[in-house]
Amino acid sequence: MALLEVRGLGKAFGGVLAVQDVSFAVEAGLVYSVIGPNGAGKTTLFNLITGIYQPSGGDIRFDGRSIVGQPPHRLASLGIARTFQNLQVCMNMSARENVMVGAHLSLDRNLLKAMMRWPALRRSDQVLSTRAGELMSYVGLDGYVTSSAGAMPYGALKRLEIARALAARPRLLFLDEPAAGLNPTETAEIDALIRRIADQGVTVVLVEHDMKMVMNISDRILVLDYGKKLAEGSAAEVRANPEVVAAYLGANHG
Questions:
Q1: pTM for the full model?
Q2: Rounded Cα distance, 77 and 214, in Å
């Protein structure tokens, strides 16, 4: 059984069909990429699966159960985490605090404990702080643990978002354009990081415009065009598909 199954998924905004009857499955442990020209419906698809949007039709199944209608925080508690195309970093917090926010689902916290600062809560905060530091080291941000997020360079902030998503201990991680705006060296580092994450058992689904990275890292690729599934297969199969080539020719896909 696939970890993620999408069946006949659709989303209409007024009269515009942003996603039309899209079906695919993602096996556990894979790096699965979603590509397509601008406006193909890639981020809309992510938003549907991660609970930002509600679908107009179809079903989404995670580990065999339907998750349609579940809000993002509930999906996070089930083991689904994501990053966003535009940075969602709290610039007035420290880098470590940003990562700790990602682990909030593991806290046994309520208003009374927060007000009274019970010892168990303080111990929990210390555990999360230690875990955040470990995750920052894991994504290559050792030198920024005590930094303010607002003082970090863009490339480091992209990795900080990944560390924050990993803090929730996901089984399924969605990365929306993790290499956008990065230089070739930073892109290679993100490439290696994503493969390392997958090798440690986290299934990764990503939207990415850097085709060199996609072809290098992906176990499977889904191609969207005008909200529809155009093709699916290995990197070699997708690269050789004439419909995929035609969809990209003349399209500004970044």
A1: 0.88
A2: 28
